[in-house]
Amino acid sequence: MHRDLPLNFFMDRYTESFASELRAFVTAVLEKRPTPVTGIDGRIPVVMALAARQSYDERRPVRL
User: Fold this and answer.
1) CA distances from 46 to 5, 18, 19 (A)
2) Residue 62 has pLDDT above 80, yes or no
């Protein structure tokens, strides 16, 4: 059985976290400090997801 997620699922569930991250980013930029989250933080879960998909498709473990 498969159903689509409810409309706006991400923002409904994570609004507070998203707003907090956005505030931290803006504060860091305005105060000329390093941002608490970097591009590598966004890249890591993408690499993990791609490896998981490859592992599933090929039915074997995949190294990261």
Assistant:
1) 20, 18, 22
2) yes
Could you tell me the pTM of the whole model?
A: 0.62
Q: Which two tokens stand for residue 2?
A: 């498969």
* Per-residue three-class SS string for the chain: CCCCCCCCHHHHHHHHHHHHHHHHHHHHHHCCCCCCCCHHHHHHHHHHHHHHHHHHHHCCCCCC
Predicted confidence band of residue 5 (pLDDT cuts 50, 70, 90): low
Q: Predicted confidence band at 7 (pLDDT cuts at 50, 70, 90)?
A: low
End-to-end CA distance of the chain: 31
Of residues 27, 25, 54, 53, the one with CA closest to residue 41: 25
